[in-house]
Design brief:
The protein has about 270 residues and is mainly α. Helices cover about 55% and strands about 0% of the residues. It is built from ten helices and two strands; from the N terminus they run E-E-H-H-H-H-H-H-H-H-H-H. Mean pLDDT is about 75; it is low at about 1-60 and about 60-65.
């Protein structure tokens, strides 16, 4: 028989003990049944199909007290792990393909194939291309891409001038990485996709709005410029300078970030 919990083949009902006796747990109340096996019917919490149930009640040979819940939780955990692994593989494949070919240059079939999965796996995790795109944006937010720059600006233990200089150095160091180039390509692709697709556009714009709100929360209100407007300018500087530097690093110095942020945020930082 097949054990319901671990899938291993177990002894057939009615198998005998080493001394040739039928195990008491294999028959009702330990009494003989004219030599006939009980076909796995439970008997006072004893064996079913030749396997002990440790006193747990059974139905059709399956444990229904405590054990069933543990198995269900374990299976649920493994299912969630597989789902997260699948989502991560799809996001990684989409990131690479869309950066290399553009969003319109790589279909969901291409994304699935690059991840070693079927297109059905895409639709079981994402509603479509826009949903996959937004999940990528959310992953960048969760991973706090570029957060080291923001952290330097908000380090109140340092003098203001030093904070700007350190932020400029962190920004320049980040732009030297392949991840920064990949992110810049994707942000351009997201912007183009949103400009061409109204439904996707307003959802992408919501992501930008959330980033502006996050920056604005750490800024003081001043008489001339609101914290929201300063956050908008700070994002424009962050993205715009990156695009120019990555395209033309010899003529656009990434350390200009410090100068630009000083002009935008000087009076608003705590």
């Amino acid at each position: 028989m097949i054990d319901a919990q671990n899938g291993r083949r177990t002894a057939e009902s009615g198998s005998r003990t080493p001394d040739g006796q039928i195990p008491a747990g294999a028959i009702p109340n330990g009494q003989p049944t004219n030599g006939q096996p009980t076909n796995g019917r439970p008997a006072n919490g004893q064996a079913t199909n030749g396997q002990p149930t440790n006193g747990k009640a059974t139905v059709n040979g399956k444990a229904t007290v405590n054990g069933g819940g543990a198995v269900g939780a374990s299976k649920g955990g493994r299912r969630q792990e597989r789902r997260e692994h699948t989502r991560s593989a799809l996001l990684g494949a989409a990131q690479q393909l869309w950066a290399e070919r553009g969003i319109h240059g790589a279909s969901l079939d291409d994304v699935a194939a690059a991840a070693g999965l079927t297109k059905g796996a895409v639709y079981s995790n994402f509603a479509g291309k826009t949903d996959l795109l937004l999940a990528l944006l959310e992953r960048y937010t969760h991973d706090r891409i570029g957060s080291e720059v923001c952290d330097e600006l908000r380090d109140t233990d340092r003098p203001m001038e030093e904070r700007f200089e350190r932020a400029g150095q962190a920004y320049a160091a980040r732009l030297e990485t392949e991840d920064a180039r990949l992110l810049a390509l994707l942000l351009v692709e997201f912007w183009l996709y949103g400009m061409r697709d109204f439904a996707a556009g307003w959802r992408i714009s919501d992501w930008y709005a959330e980033r502006r709100a996050y920056i604005a929360r750490g800024l003081a209100e001043t008489d001339d410029v609101s914290s929201h407007d300063r956050a908008t300018l700070a994002m424009a500087l962050d993205f715009g300078l990156a695009f120019q530097h990555l395209l033309d690093p010899d003529r656009v110095d990434a350390k200009l970030y410090a100068t630009g942020m000083r002009m935008v945020l000087d009076q608003a930082l705590p």
